[in-house]
Amino acid sequence: MIVWLRQVRALAALAVLELYRRKDLAVVLILSLLILCPLIFFTPFGISGASRYVNEMAMLLIWIFSAVIALGVSARLFPPEFESRTIFPLLAKPVGRGTLLVGKYLGACAASLSALLLFYLAYGVLVGVRQGVWFPVVFLQALLLHAGFVIVVAALGLLGSLVLTPSANLTICALLVGGMFFYGQRLPALVAAQPPPANAILGLIHWIGPHVEFFDMRRRVVHEWPPLPWRVCGAVMLYAVAYATVCLLAARSIFMRKKV
Amino acid sequence: MATNNVVELHGVTRRFGAVAAVDRLSLEVRQGEIMGFLGTNGAGKTTTIKLMLGFTHPDEGTVSILGGAPERPATRRRIGYMPETAYYYPYLNIHELLRFYGGICGMDTATIRARSARLIGRVGLADAGRRLLRHYSKGMLQRAGIAQALLHDPDLLILDEPITGLDPLARIQFRDLLLELRGEGKTIFFSSHELSEAELICDRVAILKHGALVWCGAVHEVAGDGAQNLERIFLRQLGEEVAP
């Protein structure tokens, strides 16, 4: 068990170190702060209520950036190992393929979640300075559910990285996640309104696609609505873990049979 | 039956479609020897190495490494492998690379630190310790490769084209390192195109042609004899004309 933990830690640390060394995160973080700071201190037409819409835009940016980082990191977990041939010395070590997969996935999650934490910290501080409300419960719930979103997206990106080229993986995952994020709630109505075979395709997406809209608490945070009951948060997190587990099991099945 | 063979391949065949990349190959590597594995491009050297590492499985025959199946973790703990031209993680330095591979081998931090400090000096990368691997030359990456292969103190080293792309000085240092390792009782199996290097350091040499073993023998039997050196044997086995 200790050996397994050391192996997983080494793999996870590699993903985190690479994210920070590549400076992807620094670029995204600086970019987001450059956009967030003026937005937060901007009062459109002197109407203080309009600042909510500005906050909503800031939250949307955080969602987009977090998805970009989670997908970018997870989609890059395996293809470079094959391209640079480092998969060979890795597989020659006394480590199972399942352990490799788990370690790399946890690394992608750790890297993406650390970036998410930085985004929320920046947003929380800026809103706190401006509105005098520091990290309310609803904000922490939003962070928790956003973490659920990240673990789902990272699992999806990892699964895609084993079957698709990096660019195809990024495109398909981005379309799926973006589509579900914006239209997930309307899918049942869309399914009912479409003729065959479009309804069958949309129905399939509805059943197997990641319902990332479950994790979206932007409006609750921006409009300062009361927090969700914790059991609802728990159920949504359970969905995230279950979805990520299914993706990982599928990825494991593919990776175990993958020829090197 | 007790044997001092570290590697045993018996009648191993590996086909890709209709092509036999490895064809009824039987080969033994004895403990403490340096075995050179020679052949032209596409002769089946890398496929044989993949079979020895358990990356792929034979269609026929058996592969035994250190008395067990190559894919067993207990066997892999005793194997060090260096692939042909790997571009190791560009955003790590050599210390971090070895810490990563040490973790993968399940080693504790203190052991990794002690062994990597010694190995980095031994492979001649002490001056480049803090540089990221993306700034390394090909020769330096090869050294990093041998360091990761030696990190967990394996009994058997499998090196795929380790000398390719090295400058003359690096080749000499590499050769000295392999001879030192043999002196420590390590068994070394390496594939190469470099006949002169093989002649200098190998105890025995095996020549592969179209996946089949065409010659296997001790280097000292042929070395230094103008009429019968390794190059001539190699060319003859490949069916090439040899000038008198």
**Mean pLDDT over the residues of chain B:** 88
- Into which percentage range does the β-strand content of chain B fall? 25-35%
Q: What would you give as the CATH superfamily of the domain at 1-78 and 158-167 and 192-244 in chain B?
A: P-loop containing nucleotide triphosphate hydrolases
- According to CATH, the fold-level topology of the domain at 1-78 and 158-167 and 192-244 in chain B is Rossmann fold
Topology order of chain A in helix (H) and strand (E) letters: HHHHHHHHHHHH
Between the first and last Cα atoms of chain A, what is the distance in angstroms?
A: 27 Å
Q: Assembly type of the shown chains?
A: heterodimer
Q: Which CATH class of the domain at 1-78 and 158-167 and 192-244 in chain B applies here?
A: Alpha Beta
- Low-pLDDT runs of 5+ residues of chain B are none
Average pLDDT taken over every residue of chain A: 88
Helix content of chain B: 25-40%
The proportion of residues forming helix of chain A, as a percent range, comes to over 70%
Q: Sheet bearing the most strands of chain B, described?
A: 6 strands, mixed
- Count the DSSP helices of chain B: 8
Please count the beta strands of chain B (DSSP E, at least 2 residues each).
Answer: 9
Looking at this protein, list some descriptive labels.
A: 260 residues, mainly alpha, 12 helices, 79% helix, globular, B: alpha/beta, Rossmann fold, three-stranded antiparallel sheet, 33% helix
